[in-house]
Amino acid sequence: MSDVSLTVNGRRVSGSAEDRTLLVHFLREQLGLTGTHVGCDTSQCGACVVHVDGRAVKSCTMLAVQASGSTIVTIEGLANGADLHPVQAAFKEHHGLQCGFCTPGMIMTATDMIARHPEGLDETTVRAELDGNICRCTGYHNIVKAILAASQAMAKGAKGRARQAA
Amino acid sequence: MGIEGVGARVARKEDKRFITGGGRYVDDMVVPGMKHAVFVRSPYAHAQIKKIDVKKAQAMPGVVGVLTGKELKADGIGNLICGWMIHSKDGTPMKMGAWSPLAVDKVRYVGDAVVIVIADTKSQARDAAEAVEITYKELKAVVEATKALEKGAPQVHAEAENNLIFDWELGDAKATDAAIKSAAHVTRMKIVNNRLVPNAMEPRAALGHYDKAEDHYTCWTTSQNPHVARLVLSAFYNVAPENKLRVIAPDVGGGFGSKIYIYPEEIVCLWASKKTGVPVKWVADRTESFLADAHGRDHVSTVEMAFDKDNRITGLKVDTIANLGAYMSLFSSCVPTYLYATLLSGQYDIPAIHANVRAVYTNTAPVDAYRGAGRPEATYVLERVMETAARELGVSPAELRRKNFITSFPHQTPVIMNYDAGDYDASLEAAMKAADYAGFTKRRADAAKQGKLRGIGMSCYIEACGLAPSAAVGSLGAGVGLWESAEVRVNAVGTIEVLTGSHSHGQGHETTFAQLVNQRFGVPIDSVSIVHGDTDKVQMGMGTYGSRSGAVGMSAVAKALDKVEAKAKKIAAHLMEADEGDIVIENGEVKVVGTDKSLPWLQVALAAYTAHNLPAGMEPGLKETAFYDPSNFTFPAGCYICEVEIDPETGLTEIVQFVAADDFGNIINPMIVEGQVHGGIAQGVGQALLEGAHYDSSGQLLTASYMDYTMPRADDLPSFKVSTSNTPCPGNPLGVKGCGEAGAIGSPPAVINAITDALGVVDIAMPASPSTVWSAIRAKKY
Predict the structure, then answer these.
(1) Aldehyde oxidase/xanthine dehydrogenase a/b hammerhead domain: which residues (chain B) (predicted)?
(2) 3-state DSSP of chain A
């Protein structure tokens, strides 16, 4: 057993875990953050994507002890209080989810994708970058639509803030 | 249509919990004292179990129980059953072999459950499972249905000689043979429908909790139909009487058919919870899902379609071998029979049809309904043959279809179904327009200049949904009725709860069912809660599959709303001293027509519960129940067009456009309907281009992870062009037909018709992977 200390969704947490415990299991079972899901055993499906120190990571590919000292954001920590994150809002508005199981991973991947492409996104790029996330319900059509819409909304929001600051 | 009423594009109420991490799936459930289970599964496709030694495993850290099939049998737990009786054409009943929830003497496929290991943590259970020692005597296995029928093939069950479960027929053999004999042209094909793994993203899971003090069981399970689960667990598997068993299917992460059935794991977790005295949770890992979820499709058919000199179809003869795997799953027998052969008339006026179906045991995972269930197989047979016939006859595929369309309704086909409404020309026209079909020749020439092969293919599908009139399915062998129930509870303050036997696992019932209530009473959908998925809350229901939630489930809600409306009107008439017939309910107001008299909806609701001033003899309260049994199936239909571009150097197929024009009757929420079509098309394109479950000859599943089984990903698919037309369904009060399966039914033949068009070949196997396409190109060139 090893000690694990993390900052998760803005809160400092610590616990102990077997060396073989994956980050996803630590989040789900020790911290009760069950929004992060496990959909496969081979790091293919992306249902477990969280942000570790600002980068999208499949939390089934990382040991809990490896993550110790990191700052983690999960789907539960994405919204600003009662205000949905623009990506969450876009998934709802554009019907980017059906059963909801892949959704947390999709949204965490999408927010990371948008952050890495401040120049904006097009459909081909979104589809290529969703390669690590599998959805069985939506055929991706509305997920792609939602991500493109969120990307545009966030760019507008950023410009608006920049104007205000100026 | 109000902004939240029927037909409105309303964002989903249920989304908030899913997008914020607040969904509650079975794996998220925690019960005090809960332990974790791992199943030891057969590594052989076919073997005798000689000895099971659990001593070492029992002594491992954290282990609380290691249980075998012998103990399960000793406690009187029953075998799994198939709930639909099919009789062979000689009148004998189907030959069902025994399926014990934990194998006792013999294992019949890789993944067959043999032992359950329960420990404090899942890791400990996994470690202990490795220490269970099972001695097997391996037997020869058979994986292909056609080979299983050969003389001397390994025998999967003693009950089914030559592995033949039934040899069934439908239609008029004599008339069909005569049509073929006198035909001006006959198109003949061998058609293979590849085996698929459903792959809902949430793996199956079960949590069994036995409460000793109450002698009561609770089962949380990933089910599309928790009430059917309770019924079967109680009546056939002897787990507990119904009043001592609560089944809860909370948020369920997709089903596509694979979560209809009651599997060994639920039975064993419930039994093991009593046996060990602790709540027992099992969650499948993905490879387990590949091995032990019911698979779909796996048909081999020979087909003959006869035409007269005017290119009118005069007869269709189909001979199909259906692989049902190692055991007969709950509805396995009806899929290749009454959900398949009854749809072989398609959208066409065919005077004579004959179908013969042999269902066969093999040493593979059980095969049952997967999105579309029988109807994709029928559509694939028919639409591949139509396309090939058009090419042989030298006529356009659209013209050949149009010439043979059914144009007047109702239409009785020679294979049971009575189509109630449709306009097949309308969807064909809409699809061709959306696809710019006329411009294809130029696009093909342009692609050729770039060294690419371009092809276009269409598919005109019909399906039967809304399963179904209970008496009709009962006469065809179903062990259950296929009605649906609803209860509408108006609370004293006017808010409303709708309890339904339908189950939502992605379909958006919490929104669409509430839209129905909004349409009726004008109550905002936020004041309407949909309750489902719990046998303690909803008395009985038949669940969600076969695109039945709208046509059957919502029709039951509409019926209960009728009763609530009638009582509310009586109360309002009494309060306002008006005639009952003059009362209307609009936008949350209960009004007397032609006057300015009105009462807010909540005041009528409150009056029902204060009961201070009700009509003489009226019971207090405002709550009504309805059971709805449809009068017919519903018949969604449409036309799909796929255009592909193939790189002859790599064999890679790109779908450059995909058009769907569907007729689903009336639509409650177009946004949700479009989403259903998108998802269905993705699964159909997956079947055509990417997916295939492959066993080697010894029965090992070679495609048992996402590294081996190709799931459609975002960059495999285009955005889809979808549209709908509407011939309202006359058979239910809402005029709806169902939209859940259409995409998966209509798309595979459209894709394969496009690829064969591009390559100039008659047929190509699904999945048409780059290597398959590349080989086909090479075989043609050299």
Answers:
(1) 20-140
(2) CEEEEEEECCEEEEEEECCCCEHHHHHHHHCCCCCCCCCCCCCCCCCCEEEECCEEEECCCCEHHHHCCCEEECHHHCCECCECCHHHHHHHHCCCCCCCCCHHHHHHHHHHHHHHCCCCCCHHHHHHHHHHCCCCCCCCHHHHHHHHHHHHHHHHHHHHHHHHHC
- Residue A80: how many CB atoms within 10 A of its CB? 8
Per the CB < 8 A criterion, the answer to whether B226 and B234 are in contact is no
Distance CA B644, CA B587 (A): 49
Domain definitions of chain A by residue range: 2-77, 86-161
CATH 1.10.150.120 assigned to A86-161? yes
Cα dihedral B206, B209, B215, B216 in deg (nearest 10): -50
Rounded to a whole number of angstroms, the distance from the CA of A149 to the nearest CA of chain B is 15
Q: What is the mean pLDDT of residues B731-737?
A: 96
Q: How is residue B37 annotated by DSSP?
A: E
The amino acid at residue A139 is G
The arithmetic mean of pLDDT across residues B70-89, rounded, is 97
pLDDT higher than 80, residue B746: yes
DSSP string, B729-756: -TTSTT-B---SSHHHHHHHHHHHHHHH
Structure tokens at A134: 């599998």
* Residues B468 and B475: beta-carbon distance below 8 Å: no
- Looking at the complex, does the CB of residue A78 fall below 8 Å from at least one CB of chain B? yes
Fold of the B31-139+203-253+259-292 domain: Aldehyde Oxidoreductase; domain 3 (3.90.1170)
Share of chain B above pLDDT 90, in %: 98
Distance of alpha carbon B434 from its chain centroid, rounded?
Answer: 29
CB < 8 Å to A99, chain B: 200-202, 251-254, 505-506
Is residue B780 scored above 90 in pLDDT?
A: no
Q: Is the Cβ pair A137, B712 closer than 8 Å?
A: no
Helix then strand then coil, % of chain B, to nearest 5: 30, 25, 45
Contact A38 B707 (CB under 8 A): no
pTM for this entry: 0.97
Local mean pLDDT, 10-residue blocks, chain A (166 residues): 96 95 97 98 97 98 97 97 96 98 98 97 98 98 98 87 74
Question: Can you give the pLDDT at residue A165?
Answer: 72
Q: Do A92 and B12 touch (CB under 8 A)?
A: yes
CATH code for residues A2-77? 3.10.20.30
- Decide if pLDDT at B782 tops 60: no
User: Is the Cβ of A33 closer than 8 Å to some Cβ of chain B?
Assistant: yes
